[in-house]
Design goal:
Order of helices and strands: EHHHEHHHEHEEEHHHHEEHH
Bound molecules: iron/sulfur cluster
Number of helices: 13
CATH architecture: Alpha-Beta Complex
Distance between the termini: 57 Å
Radius of gyration: 21 Å
Helix content: 40-55%
Shape: globular
Number of domains: 1
CATH topology: Lambda Exonuclease, Chain A
Number of strands: 8
């Protein structure tokens, strides 16, 4: 630990950034106003009736069409990937197929949001850069961050940018929780910050996506502290090798945190023991705070009621594993989302229905 503040590590040279994944969704606010345009009496593009009403969601449920996981050989999905998919599956596919295909306006919104999150993180701990040279090193950095934050949470403190991961419905999900703290009643509360370009609350579709996102975080965090996420599952899904020796900077950072480790397996063992023996509570409350990027004004706060069955049903629906996977989707009624989508000009589904 350096100075009075604890440290969180960020891996270098791997592209596996640990910065909050929460901001990736917020660019969707640019499309919110279009939902208003879909009210009775307004003029929006209406998809033709003869086109299958399932729109882009239909594709994944066809047995001969590979899922995005299969198509892109993904070992895991970010929680934000799933939330995007609940918005529009085709958009998530384009996001994977065409990385960097994004308007400069949306990129600026993301950059500002990321900077705000980083500033908040730095309020609680310093960041140190760690040179990594393998995927095991990158995961080791994640585990070391968890190891440094668990005692803070155990002693009633506040932590930010907590990594979560685990298998859900056969898919390995990863994410980063914005903030965990205890309320005055002693409840463990997850607080998710959503920054907005315009000084107004999002509309219902965006809020629903945000609720799904924080519910998934709780689902995974609770499984982690209950010991339901195993090191074997992590190793298997992410194709990691426990025998790989950790890089010198990673070992050094571990030593500074009080852990003498050589291999990735050494750190795995310590991390999972720490998590399961920590006796951390599950998350009691989910809060989403919306604030204006420019002024920092709080626009509103939402408390989310966690409905485990709904979250599981939605997950199964998105992943195409549930009994309801064949039910009609919402493609037609949500065609307004296409109007400000970056991929609108090239989107095949939009061309079919436009
Ligand atoms: S244009 Fe519409 S259907 Fe196509 S990716 Fe964008 S939101 Fe989805």
């Amino acid at each position: 630990m350096a100075g009075a503040q604890p440290e969180a590590a960020t891996p270098e040279a791997t592209g596996f950034e640990d910065l909050s994944d929460s901001e990736f969704l917020d660019f969707l606010e640019l499309g919110d106003i279009e939902e208003l345009g879909n009210q009775p009496g307004s003029s929006v593009r209406s998809p033709k009736k003869q086109v299958n009403s399932e729109g882009p969601k239909k594709r994944k449920r066809e047995a001969d069409v590979p899922t995005p996981m299969e198509r892109f050989h993904l070992k895991c999905l970010w929680v934000t990937d799933l939330a995007t998919q609940s918005w529009c599956e085709q958009q998530m596919v384009y996001g994977k197929e065409l990385p960097g295909f994004q308007s400069s306006e949306k990129a600026a919104v993301l950059d500002t949001g990321a900077s705000i999150h980083l500033a908040r993180e730095l309020e609680l701990h310093d960041l140190v850069s760690i040179q990594t040279s393998s995927k095991e090193d990158s995961w080791a950095v994640k585990l070391l961050n968890i190891l440094s934050m668990v005692p803070i949470l155990q002693s009633g403190g506040t932590i930010r940018e907590f990594p979560v991961f685990g298998e859900v419905e056969g898919v390995f999900l990863v994410g980063v929780i914005d903030e965990l703290h205890y309320t005055s009643k002693g409840q463990l509360e997850l607080a998710e910050l959503k920054t907005r370009r315009r000084p107004m609350m999002p509309l219902e579709a965006q809020k629903e996506k945000d609720r799904f996102q924080v519910s998934l975080y709780k689902y995974i965090f609770d499984a982690m502290v209950r010991g339901q996420v195993t090191s074997a599952s992590l190793v298997c899904h992410m194709k990691l090798s426990p025998e790989v020796l950790l890089g010198p900077e990673v070992r050094n950072h571990a030593r500074q945190g009080g852990f003498t480790v050589k291999s990735f397996g050494d750190l795995l063992e310590i991390s999972f023991l720490s998590l399961t023996l920590s006796d951390l509570p599950v998350i009691d409350a989910l809060k989403i705070e919306y604030s204006h990027q420019e002024t920092g004004t709080v626009l509103g706060t939402e408390m989310v009621v966690f409905e485990e069955k709904q979250v599981k049903d939605k997950l199964q629906h998105i992943l195409g594993t549930g009994q309801d996977s064949g039910k009609p989707g919402s493609g037609l009624k949500e065609a307004w989302k296409c109007r400000t989508c970056d991929y609108a000009e090239i989107c095949q589904w939009r061309k079919m229905v436009g």
